[in-house]
Amino acid sequence: MRPMLFRREFVIGVMLLGVLAAAGGEITDMAGRQVTIPDRVTRVYAAQPYTSAALYVVAPDLVINLQPGCFPLGASEKRFLTPAAGGVAVELTQPVQGEHSRLSLEAILALRPDVALAKGGPGADTRRIAEQFARIRVPVVFVDLDGLDAYPAGLEFLGRLLGREERAAALAAYARQRLAAIEAMVAAIPPAERVRVYYAESEDGLATESDQSFHAEPIRRAGGVIVHQGELKTHFGMEKVSLEQVLLYDPEVIVSLVPEFAGRAYADVRWQGVKAVSGRRIYTVPRTPSILPSRAVLCCPG
What we know:
Blueprint: H1 2-19, E1 26-28, E2 34-36, E3 44-46, H2 49-58, E4 65-66, H3 75-78, H4 83-86, E5 89-90, H5 105-110, E6 115-119, H6 127-135, E7 140-143, H7 151-162, H8 165-187, E8 196-200, E9 207-208, H9 217-221, E10 225-226, E11 239-240, H10 243-249, E12 253-256, H11 261-267, H12 275-278, E13 282-284, H13 293-297
Parallel strand pairs: 3-6, 4-5, 6-7, 8-10, 8-12, 12-13
Antiparallel strand pairs: 1-2, 9-11
């Protein structure tokens, strides 16, 4: 085993030498950290689905990996990729738990990034991710993408960082316009008339998000009243509930993350006591062009 370990460490060392960049300019990232980045950035690693979507819409030619989140990219998603990004590695550096799993540093080194992007704004706990990238000497820049309101400024920051100011400015302006339009539309709906919504995230429909969860932010933004309430227990979300609890909630609408759920619920007599099911008002979240519609589609005019 020892010769194998030695060879493995030697290979990692060679790859590490290949990604060490000459000292460039010092910037302040959106978490308030001072970071030295290369003078010329041509390869950018995205550490989470959020940063992957934001990077892709600002500078697709700099993308070296794609973070699809909890679902692999299928043919219907891949057809939206530009030729510049169509051949990059679909994220193999982390399992489907995404940002909650341990980064595979060897896999990241093999991608030869100049810079890594991670989600984090003022006050964020950036230490764990920063320490991991420090081990392979890849500068990591934190971008504030914590909630939809943060995206316009986050896009503008990426534009300055990557020399794509014009593109980023157009995206940020579009995002602000759409957010303002949605806010005005929702403000016109009297609170008593807003729809009560249950967010079904699993095949059996019994994993959901609370009204405080950032995963359910698009529903809140659209004026929906999320029936499962309380503090977010884990960053990963997908809290388990019982069918009896859903029956008590009796939502008017169900938003489903899993395409197969609607057909199963409509055919299952146990779900017929839920108003959304008996009224056939189950709506499936589209997975194209992104499973992060609140992020990627918001930032992709045209």
